[in-house]
Amino acid sequence: MVAWPDLDGASQRWLHVLKHGGGSMSKTIQALARGLKVVNVIDAEDAPVSLKDLHEATGIDKATILRILATLESEGWVYRGIGDNRYRLTYKLHDLGMRLSVEDAIAQVSAPVLDRLQKELQWPSDISVYDGEGMSIIETSRRRSPFVVNREVLGYKPSILMSAMGRAYLAYCDERRLAVILEASRKRGGKEAELASNIKHIDSMLSEIREKGYAERAPDITTLHSDEEVDLDAIAVPIIVMGDVQASLNLVWMKSAYSEEGVKERFYLSLKNASEELANIFQKNHIY
Protein backbone atom coordinates (compact mmCIF):
# COMPACT_ATOMS: atom_id res chain seq x y z
CA MET A 1 0.00 0.00 0.00
CA VAL A 2 1.31 3.47 -0.92
CA ALA A 3 0.05 6.70 0.66
CA TRP A 4 1.41 9.96 -0.65
CA PRO A 5 2.49 12.48 2.02
CA ASP A 6 0.96 15.87 2.91
CA LEU A 7 -2.40 15.31 1.23
CA ASP A 8 -4.92 12.53 1.68
CA GLY A 9 -6.49 10.17 -0.79
CA ALA A 10 -7.08 10.75 -4.44
CA SER A 11 -6.00 14.40 -4.45
CA GLN A 12 -2.48 13.27 -3.55
CA ARG A 13 -2.30 11.38 -6.83
CA TRP A 14 -3.72 14.27 -8.80
CA LEU A 15 -1.32 16.74 -7.18
CA HIS A 16 1.64 14.48 -7.95
CA VAL A 17 0.77 14.43 -11.64
CA LEU A 18 0.17 18.16 -11.78
CA LYS A 19 3.35 18.98 -9.86
CA HIS A 20 5.59 16.79 -11.99
CA GLY A 21 3.99 17.49 -15.32
CA GLY A 22 5.89 20.75 -15.76
CA GLY A 23 8.55 23.00 -14.32
CA SER A 24 8.70 24.20 -10.75
CA MET A 25 6.75 27.30 -9.71
CA SER A 26 7.89 29.92 -7.22
CA LYS A 27 4.33 30.91 -6.31
CA THR A 28 1.37 28.74 -5.43
CA ILE A 29 -1.73 28.74 -7.65
CA GLN A 30 -4.68 29.52 -5.39
CA ALA A 31 -7.27 28.21 -7.82
CA LEU A 32 -5.42 24.89 -7.99
CA ALA A 33 -5.16 24.78 -4.19
CA ARG A 34 -8.90 25.33 -3.84
CA GLY A 35 -9.59 22.66 -6.46
CA LEU A 36 -7.45 20.14 -4.59
CA LYS A 37 -9.21 21.05 -1.37
CA VAL A 38 -12.55 20.21 -2.96
CA VAL A 39 -11.20 16.92 -4.34
CA ASN A 40 -9.82 16.09 -0.91
CA VAL A 41 -13.18 16.61 0.78
CA ILE A 42 -15.01 14.48 -1.77
CA ASP A 43 -12.44 11.71 -1.37
CA ALA A 44 -12.57 11.83 2.45
CA GLU A 45 -16.33 11.33 2.68
CA ASP A 46 -17.87 7.86 2.78
CA ALA A 47 -20.80 9.00 0.65
CA PRO A 48 -21.33 11.43 -2.25
CA VAL A 49 -21.32 15.09 -1.16
CA SER A 50 -23.60 18.05 -1.83
CA LEU A 51 -22.68 21.63 -2.61
CA LYS A 52 -23.64 22.51 0.96
CA ASP A 53 -21.33 19.80 2.33
CA LEU A 54 -18.42 21.15 0.30
CA HIS A 55 -19.09 24.74 1.36
CA GLU A 56 -19.18 23.79 5.05
CA ALA A 57 -16.08 21.60 4.84
CA THR A 58 -13.90 23.97 2.82
CA GLY A 59 -15.14 27.44 3.72
CA ILE A 60 -15.07 28.33 0.03
CA ASP A 61 -18.08 30.31 -1.21
CA LYS A 62 -20.64 28.32 -3.16
CA ALA A 63 -20.21 30.23 -6.43
CA THR A 64 -16.49 29.43 -6.47
CA ILE A 65 -17.14 25.79 -5.58
CA LEU A 66 -19.58 25.50 -8.49
CA ARG A 67 -16.93 26.83 -10.88
CA ILE A 68 -14.40 24.37 -9.46
CA LEU A 69 -16.84 21.49 -9.79
CA ALA A 70 -17.71 22.48 -13.36
CA THR A 71 -14.01 22.46 -14.25
CA LEU A 72 -13.41 19.12 -12.54
CA GLU A 73 -16.44 17.63 -14.31
CA SER A 74 -15.32 18.88 -17.72
CA GLU A 75 -11.85 17.38 -17.17
CA GLY A 76 -13.28 14.04 -16.07
CA TRP A 77 -12.19 14.09 -12.41
CA VAL A 78 -15.61 14.52 -10.78
CA TYR A 79 -19.17 13.69 -11.77
CA ARG A 80 -22.59 14.58 -10.34
CA GLY A 81 -25.13 11.83 -9.89
CA ILE A 82 -28.36 12.36 -11.82
CA GLY A 83 -30.43 10.76 -9.06
CA ASP A 84 -29.22 12.84 -6.10
CA ASN A 85 -27.23 15.75 -7.59
CA ARG A 86 -24.31 14.86 -5.31
CA TYR A 87 -20.67 14.81 -6.30
CA ARG A 88 -18.35 11.84 -6.58
CA LEU A 89 -14.81 11.22 -7.84
CA THR A 90 -14.54 9.40 -11.15
CA TYR A 91 -12.61 6.24 -11.99
CA LYS A 92 -10.07 8.42 -13.77
CA LEU A 93 -8.40 8.99 -10.40
CA HIS A 94 -8.65 5.30 -9.55
CA ASP A 95 -6.96 4.34 -12.82
CA LEU A 96 -4.26 6.92 -12.21
CA GLY A 97 -3.60 5.46 -8.78
CA MET A 98 -3.06 2.02 -10.27
CA ARG A 99 -0.05 3.38 -12.16
CA LEU A 100 1.69 4.72 -9.07
CA SER A 101 4.55 2.64 -7.71
CA VAL A 102 6.23 2.03 -4.39
CA GLU A 103 9.51 3.13 -5.99
CA ASP A 104 8.04 6.53 -6.88
CA ALA A 105 6.71 6.94 -3.35
CA ILE A 106 10.09 6.03 -1.82
CA ALA A 107 11.88 8.48 -4.11
CA GLN A 108 9.44 11.27 -3.25
CA VAL A 109 9.62 10.98 0.53
CA SER A 110 13.37 10.29 0.53
CA ALA A 111 14.44 13.36 -1.43
CA PRO A 112 14.28 15.88 1.47
CA VAL A 113 16.25 13.54 3.75
CA LEU A 114 18.93 12.98 1.09
CA ASP A 115 19.12 16.72 0.57
CA ARG A 116 19.70 17.40 4.28
CA LEU A 117 22.24 14.60 4.54
CA GLN A 118 24.21 16.01 1.61
CA LYS A 119 24.25 19.46 3.19
CA GLU A 120 25.49 17.96 6.46
CA LEU A 121 28.25 15.76 5.02
CA GLN A 122 28.87 17.46 1.61
CA TRP A 123 29.05 14.05 -0.08
CA PRO A 124 26.07 12.62 -1.99
CA SER A 125 23.81 9.67 -1.21
CA ASP A 126 21.66 7.28 -3.23
CA ILE A 127 18.51 5.32 -2.43
CA SER A 128 18.18 1.91 -4.07
CA VAL A 129 15.53 -0.83 -3.95
CA TYR A 130 15.48 -4.48 -4.91
CA ASP A 131 13.35 -4.68 -8.08
CA GLY A 132 13.11 -8.46 -8.38
CA GLU A 133 16.29 -8.76 -10.41
CA GLY A 134 18.78 -6.65 -8.48
CA MET A 135 19.32 -3.30 -6.84
CA SER A 136 18.16 -0.20 -8.71
CA ILE A 137 18.96 3.42 -7.79
CA ILE A 138 15.72 5.43 -7.68
CA GLU A 139 16.83 8.70 -6.08
CA THR A 140 20.12 10.51 -5.54
CA SER A 141 21.55 13.77 -4.21
CA ARG A 142 24.60 13.64 -6.48
CA ARG A 143 23.50 16.65 -8.49
CA ARG A 144 23.39 18.67 -5.25
CA SER A 145 26.96 17.81 -4.34
CA PRO A 146 29.78 20.24 -5.21
CA PHE A 147 31.91 17.21 -6.05
CA VAL A 148 31.58 15.38 -9.38
CA VAL A 149 30.95 11.75 -8.52
CA ASN A 150 29.05 10.04 -11.34
CA ARG A 151 25.94 12.18 -11.26
CA GLU A 152 23.91 10.25 -13.86
CA VAL A 153 22.97 7.27 -11.71
CA LEU A 154 19.16 7.10 -11.69
CA GLY A 155 18.13 3.69 -12.97
CA TYR A 156 21.65 2.31 -12.59
CA LYS A 157 21.81 -1.22 -11.17
CA PRO A 158 24.78 -1.68 -8.84
CA SER A 159 26.08 -5.17 -8.19
CA ILE A 160 24.01 -6.78 -5.47
CA LEU A 161 27.01 -8.78 -4.19
CA MET A 162 29.77 -6.21 -4.66
CA SER A 163 28.18 -2.81 -4.02
CA ALA A 164 27.67 -1.44 -0.52
CA MET A 165 23.94 -0.98 -1.19
CA GLY A 166 23.48 -4.52 -2.44
CA ARG A 167 25.37 -5.98 0.50
CA ALA A 168 23.39 -3.89 3.01
CA TYR A 169 20.18 -5.22 1.49
CA LEU A 170 21.34 -8.85 1.53
CA ALA A 171 22.49 -8.65 5.15
CA TYR A 172 19.01 -7.75 6.36
CA CYS A 173 16.64 -9.49 3.94
CA ASP A 174 14.90 -12.70 4.96
CA GLU A 175 16.53 -16.08 4.34
CA ARG A 176 14.13 -17.13 1.58
CA ARG A 177 14.77 -13.97 -0.44
CA LEU A 178 18.51 -14.25 0.16
CA ALA A 179 18.50 -17.81 -1.18
CA VAL A 180 16.57 -16.73 -4.30
CA ILE A 181 18.96 -13.85 -4.98
CA LEU A 182 22.06 -16.00 -4.54
CA GLU A 183 20.67 -18.70 -6.84
CA ALA A 184 19.89 -16.11 -9.53
CA SER A 185 23.41 -14.69 -9.17
CA ARG A 186 24.93 -18.16 -9.64
CA LYS A 187 22.92 -18.67 -12.83
CA ARG A 188 24.08 -15.36 -14.33
CA GLY A 189 27.70 -16.41 -14.26
CA GLY A 190 30.76 -14.20 -14.01
CA LYS A 191 32.23 -12.66 -10.89
CA GLU A 192 28.90 -12.56 -9.01
CA ALA A 193 28.33 -16.26 -9.67
CA GLU A 194 31.72 -17.00 -8.18
CA LEU A 195 30.94 -14.94 -5.09
CA ALA A 196 27.44 -16.39 -4.70
CA SER A 197 28.83 -19.93 -4.80
CA ASN A 198 31.08 -19.31 -1.81
CA ILE A 199 28.44 -19.69 0.88
CA LYS A 200 30.97 -19.59 3.70
CA HIS A 201 32.29 -16.25 2.50
CA ILE A 202 28.76 -14.88 2.04
CA ASP A 203 27.74 -15.89 5.57
CA SER A 204 30.89 -14.33 7.03
CA MET A 205 30.46 -11.10 5.06
CA LEU A 206 26.81 -10.65 5.99
CA SER A 207 27.48 -11.41 9.66
CA GLU A 208 30.19 -8.75 9.69
CA ILE A 209 27.81 -6.22 8.14
CA ARG A 210 25.17 -6.91 10.79
CA GLU A 211 27.78 -6.53 13.52
CA LYS A 212 29.06 -3.18 12.21
CA GLY A 213 25.67 -1.90 11.11
CA TYR A 214 26.86 -0.88 7.66
CA ALA A 215 28.14 -2.48 4.46
CA GLU A 216 31.23 -1.60 2.44
CA ARG A 217 31.74 -2.02 -1.29
CA ALA A 218 34.12 -4.63 -2.66
CA PRO A 219 37.63 -3.17 -3.08
CA ASP A 220 37.79 -4.11 -6.76
CA ILE A 221 34.30 -3.01 -7.74
CA THR A 222 33.99 -1.21 -11.08
CA THR A 223 32.48 2.22 -10.67
CA LEU A 224 30.21 4.04 -13.08
CA HIS A 225 31.71 5.87 -16.03
CA SER A 226 32.67 9.43 -15.16
CA ASP A 227 34.22 12.32 -16.99
CA GLU A 228 36.91 12.30 -14.33
CA GLU A 229 38.79 9.28 -13.10
CA VAL A 230 38.14 9.28 -9.37
CA ASP A 231 38.69 6.58 -6.79
CA LEU A 232 35.44 6.39 -4.84
CA ASP A 233 34.46 4.74 -1.61
CA ALA A 234 31.02 4.08 -0.15
CA ILE A 235 29.15 2.61 2.75
CA ALA A 236 25.47 1.72 2.93
CA VAL A 237 22.81 0.94 5.52
CA PRO A 238 19.42 -0.75 5.23
CA ILE A 239 16.09 1.00 5.68
CA ILE A 240 14.01 -1.42 7.73
CA VAL A 241 10.26 -1.07 8.25
CA MET A 242 8.31 -3.50 10.41
CA GLY A 243 11.20 -5.95 10.40
CA ASP A 244 11.63 -6.03 6.62
CA VAL A 245 14.32 -4.25 4.60
CA GLN A 246 12.68 -1.86 2.13
CA ALA A 247 15.66 -0.07 0.59
CA SER A 248 19.33 0.76 0.98
CA LEU A 249 20.86 4.18 1.65
CA ASN A 250 24.49 4.90 0.85
CA LEU A 251 27.07 7.66 1.09
CA VAL A 252 29.72 8.09 -1.61
CA TRP A 253 32.98 10.04 -1.35
CA MET A 254 36.41 10.36 -2.91
CA LYS A 255 39.03 8.32 -1.09
CA SER A 256 41.66 11.01 -1.64
CA ALA A 257 39.70 13.45 0.53
CA TYR A 258 40.52 11.61 3.77
CA SER A 259 43.60 10.03 5.23
CA GLU A 260 42.59 9.61 8.86
CA GLU A 261 41.13 6.46 10.38
CA GLY A 262 37.52 6.20 11.44
CA VAL A 263 35.95 8.10 8.53
CA LYS A 264 33.50 5.31 7.74
CA GLU A 265 32.42 5.03 11.38
CA ARG A 266 31.86 8.79 11.55
CA PHE A 267 29.82 8.80 8.35
CA TYR A 268 27.90 5.76 9.56
CA LEU A 269 26.40 7.66 12.51
CA SER A 270 24.83 10.27 10.21
CA LEU A 271 23.76 7.62 7.70
CA LYS A 272 22.15 5.54 10.45
CA ASN A 273 20.16 8.54 11.70
CA ALA A 274 18.98 9.25 8.17
CA SER A 275 17.95 5.63 7.60
CA GLU A 276 15.96 5.60 10.85
CA GLU A 277 14.24 8.84 9.85
CA LEU A 278 13.36 7.34 6.48
CA ALA A 279 12.06 4.16 8.11
CA ASN A 280 9.70 6.26 10.24
CA ILE A 281 8.56 8.21 7.17
CA PHE A 282 7.96 4.99 5.22
CA GLN A 283 5.91 3.54 8.06
CA LYS A 284 3.91 6.73 8.55
CA ASN A 285 3.04 6.78 4.86
CA HIS A 286 2.45 3.00 4.63
CA ILE A 287 5.31 2.48 2.19
CA TYR A 288 6.14 -1.16 2.84
What is the gist of this entry?
This protein is α+β, with helices and mostly antiparallel strands and 288 residues long. Helix content is 49%, strand content 14%. The protein has two domains: 10-98, Orthogonal Bundle (Arc Repressor Mutant, subunit A), CATH 1.10.10; 102-284, GAF domain (Beta-Lactamase, 2-Layer Sandwich), CATH 3.30.450.
Topology, please?
Elements: H1 10-20, H2 30-44, H3 51-58, H4 62-74, E1 78-80, E2 87-89, H5 91-98, H6 102-121, E3 126-130, E4 135-140, H7 164-172, H8 175-188, H9 190-197, H10 199-212, E5 215-216, E6 232-241, E7 244-254, H11 263-284
Antiparallel strand pairs: 1-2, 3-4, 3-7, 5-6, 6-7
Helix pairs in contact: 1-2, 1-5, 2-4, 6-11, 7-10, 8-9
Which characteristics define this entry?
single chain, 288 residues, alpha+beta, Arc Repressor Mutant, subunit A, Beta-Lactamase, 5-stranded antiparallel sheet, two-stranded antiparallel sheet, 14% strand
Your description of this structure?
- With 288 residues, this protein is α+β, with helices and mostly antiparallel strands.
- It has 2 domains: 10-98, Orthogonal Bundle (Arc Repressor Mutant, subunit A), CATH 1.10.10; 102-284, Beta-Lactamase, CATH 3.30.450.40.
- It is 49% helix and 14% strand.
- Strands 4-3-7-6-5 form a 5-stranded antiparallel sheet, with helices on both faces. It has a two-stranded antiparallel sheet with strand order 1-2.
- The termini are close together.
- Mean pLDDT is 84; it is low at 1-11 and 14-26.
